[in-house]
Amino acid sequence: MRYQSAGESHGPALVAIVNEVPAGVILSAAGIDVDLARRQSGYGRGGRMAIEQDRAEILSGVRFGKTIGSPVAIKISNRDWPNWSERMSQEGRPPHDLVREQSPRPGHADLVGALKIGTQDCRDILERASARETASRVAAGAVARAFLSHLGVEIGSYVTRIGSVILPDEAIARKKGVFSATKVEASSVRCPDEAVSLEMVTAIDEARAAGESLGGWFNVSVTGLVPGIGGYAQASDRLSGALAGAVCSIPAIKGVQFGLGFLAGGLPGSQVHDAIVNPEGSGGKGILRRASNNAGGLEGGMTTGEPLLISAVMKPIPTLTKPLQTIDLLSRQITEASKERSDICAVPAAAVVAEAEVALVLADAYQRKFGYDTMPDILEAFKAYIERISR
Ligand code: EPS
Asked: How far does Cα 371 stand from its chain's mean position?
């Protein structure tokens, strides 16, 4: 399963096309909308989120509520488009009063993108480098999630840090991979602890007042996985690489770790590796388990069957209301970086986008193991595999 997306942040719409979706996956626009709304929410978002109410329009690949084995195309209209139709027109000449974005923001794709494609108007870059593009990823990821739910796989996420506010038992939560989804969804910053959520909200308010922006950390946790998804024989088979690449492809993500992650580098082997045990009360039958999950659900580039635990760090948003110094691309004079309408903090949204990226990687890996064409065949292969590894 693979996706591609298109669409400018202030163009008429975003589009996602998901290829290699098997027939028989239950899929509805309303189901996709749930994830689109989760991405839109989160304390610290900017004015754009008050304008948009992202809705998925399924253009192809679904009939009577189920996929039919053809590419699934999804459109998300930009409600802001009428305000931009002249500045972003596909036809004609630029309006005489067009304001060009020629003061690149440090930390954004503005400067390097402008150098790359040979423009002095960074709008040509920022329209696509904008985090708005992640709405299409979430729509594509919802297709992968729908496929995985037929196989018992569930994906969630929670925020563990915003600015200097850290969820205190972060390491414990990461090890176990269990958290209260109800508490997370009830928190405006996707943090399972109510008191820490409030501190995070205050930190965002303070950043807003200071003309600042904030980054943070989040965890993605996946349950219901079977062992042996991914592979060890070729570099490209390794699920760890595919997952890290997918999460790092999200704008502003600067690092990814699994399970104990960087902490594993400071501990002796006996305190890192997870003992292999029989499932409790099984009498020596059933899928072999682990006494702990420091590996974060991955060994040798494959799932172990324990929860997959991915942590990532997001840098602060580059657009600042008290802008940094930059160079005007036309005059080469020192100036202030441009001030686009922006978010103060988008860590909760990034966590939802990461869920989608993880879903797409896992869906692809499950298909490689159990088949591509149709759900009944895939489920039969899946059942046979579970039976074999349980003996
Ligand atoms: C975003 C849409 C953008 C920003 C934000 C996230 O809309 P606009 O640029 O019209 O305000 O709110 O984008 C960025 C933080 C960024 O760096 O581009 C969205 O849909 O998530």
From this structure: 25
